[in-house]
Amino acid sequence: MQQSINQIPFFFIIGRARSGTTLLRCLLDAHPEINIPLECAFIVHLYPKYGKTTLWSEQKIRSFYCDLMSYPKFHFWIIDEEQLEADLLQCFGETTYSHLCKVVYMNFKSFFLKSEIKFLGDKNPSYSFHTKRILQLFPEARFIHITRDYRDNIISMINAKFEAKNYSSLAYRWMFHNKQMVKQKKCTPEKVYTIRYEDMVAEPEIYLRKICQFLNISFNPDMMNYHVKLDEMRKIYPKELINLHHKSLFQPLNADKVYAWKHLLTNKQIRICDTVVGSFAEKMGYERRYKRNFFVYLYCIPGIFYGRMMYFVMSIIHMLPLKIRMKLINGLAIVFKHDWKKYQKSVVTHK
Fold first, then answer.
1. Predicted pLDDT of residue 250
2. Superfamily the domain 5-36+110-319 falls into
3. pLDDT under 50 in the chain at which residues?
4. Which of 149, 169, 191, 279 could bond 307 through an S-S bridge, CB–CB 3.0 to 4.6 Å?
5. For the chain, domain boundaries
């Protein structure tokens, strides 16, 4: 693995949270030649401390391993910790941070059967803001950018209790998030493939074939039956967590939730969303019901300001030293502490 791992390319699934990124991850992870771990942004967060290291001592590797194990979402990975530590220690000497990251990803144990791994994948909405860094680390990397109608996305964000129920803020964050990938696509059009959630669930095989072509890998029909294998996830992850965030993953692909906003949102809520997103909606392939209204926009300013401030705070946190940053990340993640406890208890039971 140590000799051939640098030849394995990376791709990243990116998009606003609740836009189908997890669904697309499961579809592609069902491919026997692709390995995509669960969402965990350690590549970017550990970069300030280890990203420029080229000579790795045993102490440095163990430090990296400890920081990795303490990263919040890494707890959800199915991984042999002793094997991972042993594989990382084999990287002693001259090597890159990118190489160590690939070693970690190769150690992830998927629910799906694998043959020869030809692609490593990562699904993380937050990486929309770190594409330049990712391309520095993995020059061969490609991005699959998935979008979803902003009004359906907002409904899903609220139902999953991801953020505050503020329509103007959520609409702004959808727009800001997707604009990052539009900018990246202008810079490197050959490295970014954009797909709409609505198109993918309507004609999954057609668009999965297009994604495989983009990645230069053969299409595998097993991808279409991804949900069957996911039953094994029920044995490990808390039922409450699955029902809240990913209940639909365990069902065959369907378009039932497409454009649900038309009968779930009020005219006032739709007008707010359409006003904030503006003409960018058409650029992303979504038709607005209402054009931008000056007075409605004034009403939305507090929510827009709140959305902007969230990104500003995130950028400040990212510049802090790792120890302080990790404390803040763990502090913010305290909301999910009950889920972690249930998950860890379940893991102990099944080991």
1. 60
2. P-loop containing nucleotide triphosphate hydrolases (3.40.50.300)
3. 335-351
4. 169
5. 5-36+110-319
